[in-house]
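Figure 3 (text version): structure tokens given as input.
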């Protein structure tokens, strides 16, 4: 993949990361409010651990898996491994990457892996 295409995907991933990080921050503010409304009189009474636990609980599994998928994809760009199937080493089609910029496998390997593991929830951007 040439540098221009790579940059295109990098920008898309960064935009997604920003979007999801904003969601996470929003959840964090909600979590604090809920923890405070939850019988605790004021924020000073909340231990840091309470808040952390609440945030963890509120931050949906789906949301945090989105974020880690995106970070992984950005790391692959940095390391020059982006767009290469992690299973067979063949290039992943750009059409597939357009549809799913976080794709780790080409369509063949993805199907193979899903058949072995059972369907897995794949984040779609
Ligand atoms: Zn493959």
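Below: residues designed for each position.
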């Amino acid at each position: 993949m040439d540098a221009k295409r790579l940059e295109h995907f990098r920008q898309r991933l960064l935009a997604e990361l920003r979007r999801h990080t904003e969601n996470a921050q929003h959840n964090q503010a909600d979590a604090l409010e809920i923890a405070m409304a939850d019988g605790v009189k004021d924020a000073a009474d909340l231990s840091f651990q309470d808040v952390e636990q609440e945030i963890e609980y509120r931050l949906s599994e789906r949301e945090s898996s989105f974020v880690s998928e995106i970070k992984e994809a950005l790391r692959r760009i940095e390391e020059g491994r982006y767009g290469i199937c992690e299973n067979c080493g063949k290039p992943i089609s750009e059409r597939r990457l357009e549809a799913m910029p976080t794709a780790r496998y080409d369509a063949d390997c993805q199907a193979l892996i899903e058949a072995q593991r059972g369907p897995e929830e794949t984040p779609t951007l």
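The mean pLDDT is 82.
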